[in-house]
Specification:
By secondary structure, this protein is of the alpha/beta class. The chain has a single domain (about 5-135), classed as Rossmann fold. Helix content is about 55%, strand content about 15%. The protein is built from seven helices and five strands; from the N terminus they run βααβααβααββα. The protein has helices at about 10-15, 25-35, 45-55, 60-70, 80-90, 95-105, 130-135; strands at about 5-10, 40-45, 75, 110-115, 125-130. The chain has a five-stranded parallel beta sheet with strand order 3-2-1-4-5. The longest helix has 14 residues, at about 25-35. It is globular.
Length: about 140
């Protein structure tokens, strides 16, 4: 299957950066494959602060950001997405961060949202983990 635009969740980026994380090799393989196939990667602006906050390897994270900032498309949520995410999170008791990411991906034409979360909000685009995505492309 040919995908043109995908969104990578925070945990996928952390897996790419963190050599000690269990899904590191799988995430790096995903990254290499996506780059090789010319698939556009989208991230939301807040993923940068989330990753920097979570990671203990601050310098490595900043160097990674320097590499990807001009190669990957970085997108804002916007007021409408934020409002919708808050309403959905309140109404359905959902994780706001997940809902924001997924709605943002959907609003910006992503075909697939790649995450290693076991349970993820269905915002109308295909949700896959690393293995599923690698098996489909």
């Amino acid at each position: 299957m040919e995908f043109k635009v995908i969104f990578l969740d925070t945990n996928i980026i952390l897996d790419i950066i963190g050599a000690n994380r269990p899904k590191h090799n799988e995430a790096k393989e995903l990254w290499k494959t996506v780059v090789f196939k010319g698939i556009q990667i989208l991230l939301s602006e807040d993923i940068f602060t989330n990753i920097f906050y979570i990671s203990k390897e601050k310098r490595k994270v900043l160097e990674f950001f320097k590499v990807i900032q001009n190669r990957w498309r970085i997108i804002p949520f916007g007021k409408d997405v934020i409002k919708k995410a808050i309403d959905l999170s309140l109404e359905k008791d959902l994780d706001l961060e997940d809902v924001l990411q997924c709605l943002c991906a959907n609003e910006n034409g992503c075909e697939v949202f790649v995450t290693n979360d076991k349970k993820f909000y269905d915002c109308g685009i295909e949700i896959m983990n690393c293995t599923e995505f690698l098996n489909k492309i």
